[in-house]
Amino acid sequence: MMPAHPPRSPDLSAVQRAASNALQAKAVKVEKISGYLYRTYRLTTSEGFFYILRTRPSYNVRLLQREEGRLEAEAGALQVLSRAPDLVAARLIEYQSTNVVLGSFYLISGPFSGSIFADVEPSLSRQALASIDKSLGGYVRRLSAVTGPAFGRLRRSDGYPGSPSWARIFIAMLETLLRDGEDALINLPYEGIRDVARRHRASLDLIKVPRLVILELSADENVVVDVRDHRVTGLLDFSTAFWGDPYMSDCFYKPTASFAEGFGKLPNGDAEERIRQYLYVLYHSLLTVVKHCYRPSEDGDELAARRDLTTAMRALSQVTSR
Fold it and tell me: Can you give the residue ranges of the Aminoglycoside phosphotransferase domain (predicted)?
C-alpha cells in the first residue's frame, strides 16, 4: 500500500541547506550517488573530508519488512560506536525524524577520509586489493569485539528488551524474511526452511555473548579506503547493525583468503560452527532471492543464491546438532 504522505525526492538546494547547517560550513559540495537502497548524497567540505546524507527511498521502491527502519537503526549504531574507543568510525552528525526539512527523514554521518572502494577498485592492482581485503578483515574483527546487553535490535525502543537467546532472534529474523517471500508468492520451500532452523536451535544458542553485527557490510559501495596505503578507513552504512553472532555478516558468506588473514579465525572448526554457518548461508541466499523478486533491477545472482540455498538445506538436513 502506498503511504498516505510518501517521502518526496529532496532537491539539491534543500540538501545543501541542511548540510551547511549541520556541518556549520558555507561551502559544501553536494553530489547524489547511486548504488544504494536509500537515497544517498556525498557532502564534501573544504577541509577535504566527506560526509554522507541519507534519506528514505522513493515511495515506489518496494522494501522488505526489515528495511523499513534503517535510518533509525543506523543512528543507534553510530551512537553505540561512539562509545567504542578502539574503533575509528563515522560520527552521527544529525538524525532528523520528521519530513519538515527535506520531505523525508534523513541522517548525516561522517567525516570520512579516503575514497569509496567501488570508485577506485578498477584501478587497483591485485596486491592492493588483497591488502584492502586484509585490512577489512581487521576492521571487522574490531567491530565484532563490541558487545551489547542482549541479542536483537541495538535500540531498546517501544519496550523491546532484546533476548538472551540468539536462536530466538535468528529465527525471528528468518521468519520475517520468509513472510516477505510468502507475501510476494515466491516459490520457496518455506516449511522446510522453518523446520531446519527449529531443529538447529541448540547450535545457535551456543552463542552466549551478543556482539555487534553488520548484516550487509561487504559491498564495495559501503567500504571507504585510503588508496595510498591500501587500508580500510571506515564504512558508509551501519543501518543493518544489530546484536548477534558476527559470523552472520555477509563478509563471511564467501570470504577471501586475505580477509580471513586479517580477521583471524574463520568459523569452520567444529560441527556446531559449521551448522551455524550453513544457517547463515541459508539466510543470505534467501535474502538474495527475495530481494531479486522485490527489486529485479538490483545486482544479485538469483540462480546462484537458489543453488546455495539448496546446498545449505541439504547439509542441514543431514546433520544433527547436540
Answer: 34-247
| Structural domain that includes position 172 | 118-318
Q: Once rounded to an integer, what is the mean pLDDT over residues 242-264?
A: 94
The three-state secondary structure class of 93 is strand
Cis peptide before 111 (omega within 30 of 0): yes
Cell of 278: 550453513
Work out how many domains the chain is built from and give that number.
2
Residue 148 lies in a domain: yes
Per DSSP, the three-state class of 258 is helix
Q: Evaluate if residue 320 carries a pLDDT over 70.
A: no
Whether the upstream peptide bond of residue 267 has omega within 30° of 0, thus cis, is no
Farthest CA pair distance, the chain = 63
The reply to whether 93 and 218 lie within a common domain is no
Single out the residue of 75, 101, 96, 77 nearest to residue 87, CA to CA: 77
CATH number of the structural domain spanning residue 62: 3.30.200.20
Q: Residue 78 region, left (φ>0) first, then alpha (ψ -120 to 50), else beta?
A: alpha
Among positive and negative, which fits the CA dihedral 100, 105, 152, 141? negative
**pLDDT-based confidence at 9, cuts 50/70/90?**
low
Contact 91, 110 (CB under 8 A): yes
Average pLDDT over residues 121-143: 96
pTM of structure:
0.92
Please name which of 308, 118, 294, 310 lies closest in space to residue 222, comparing C-alpha atoms. 118
The domain boundary residue, chosen from 113, 136, 167:
113
CA distance 21 to 56: 20
What would the grid cell of residue 275 be? 551448522
Q: Report the CATH number at residue 238.
A: 3.90.1200.10
Mean pLDDT, range 94-100, rounded to an integer? 89
